[in-house]
Specification:
single chain, alpha/beta, Rossmann fold, 2 domains, 7 strands, about 20% strand
Length: about 290
């Protein structure tokens, strides 16, 4: 999906929580922005690509339309009824899906030209090992696309939002805020902004199940840069996307908040990287 279709993206964004397939469709259309970002950075999509955490599978179907072949993995078979269906509907035959762990990739060294990691690393138990594995399976000169969100931002917190926008994760800390939202989902769901079909906390409460915190890597921008370099990559491009609230501030103030280590993890809602193997650095994956 190369063409950015804002109307289709808005339409599928509004529907994305109805089912795994609807979310895969949303990812399919949103991937056009990732393709544009990579092309601006001079990255080719024509070779062999690995999506190292594909979720429902919308993004790999889109990238497969451009690539020689695409392999997509996830810890759970979310793609089974979404990505495989979407691939069949779009006539995409050069994409394959598999259940696998990104920390132990079942592929030989230097197997891929490009690795995709979109909103994955924050859910990985050992981010350092995951990055080293991604480097191991990249060919010399290969590239990696990595996107994530700082956990202190609203987007990166992966928590519901209150109707009154109070940043509980900043005031109470992660553990206490998570417990508070679990309690609100059980006893006062009306206090939460998202409806039930968009809110896994409310869903878990209604089903009587325990909601587990799946934010395993507490992403901070400075630490992420260190992990990237330690894994044997060099950073070709880094974009820090501020949330809308902070983008509205006067330019010098907004830039200072974005670039200062004191504030950037709060005001930046998403980070995008284009990485290249640093051939002078050892890969310590084993």
């Amino acid at each position: 999906m190369r063409q950015i279709d804002d109307s289709a993206l808005k339409r599928h964004s509004d529907l994305r929580f109805r089912s795994e397939y609807d979310y895969a469709l949303f990812e399919y259309y949103r991937s056009a922005k990732v393709i544009a970002y990579l092309e601006q950075a001079g990255v080719s999509m024509t070779g062999r690509i690995l999506d190292a955490g594909c979720g429902g599978g919308g993004m790999p179907v889109s990238f497969a339309e451009e690539a020689e072949s695409l392999t997509a993995i996830d810890l759970t078979p979310r793609f089974r009824d979404a990505g495989t269906r979407l691939a069949a509907e779009r006539g995409v035959r050069n994409v394959s899906f598999a259940v696998a762990n990104g920390m132990w990739l079942p592929f030989p060294d230097r197997a891929f030209d490009l690795v995709l990691s979109h909103a994955v690393i924050e859910h990985v138990a050992n981010a350092a090992r995951y990055l080293r594995e991604c480097r191991r399976v990249l060919k010399s000169g290969g590239r990696m696309y990595l996107s994530t969100s700082p956990y202190l931002s609203f987007a990166g917190a992966h928590l519901p939002r209150l109707k009154v926008p109070v940043p509980l994760h900043l005031l109470l800390g992660r553990r206490a805020a998570f417990a508070t939202f679990c309690a609100l989902a059980r006893h006062a769901p009306w206090a939460l902004r998202e409806p039930e079909h968009e809110n896994t906390f409310i869903k878990a409460a209604r089903q009587g199940t325990v909601k587990h915190d799946d934010l395993l890597e507490r992403v901070r921008i400075h630490r992420m840069r260190t992990l990237i370099l330690d894994a044997g990559f060099e950073i070709l491009r880094e974009n820090l996307h501020q949330t809308r609230t902070f983008r509205r501030l006067p330019g010098p103030i907004a830039r200072w908040l974005r670039d200062s280590r004191l504030t950037q993890d709060v005001v930046v809602g998403a980070v995008e990287y284009v990485l290249r193997i640093d051939d002078a650095a050892p890969n310590r994956a084993r």
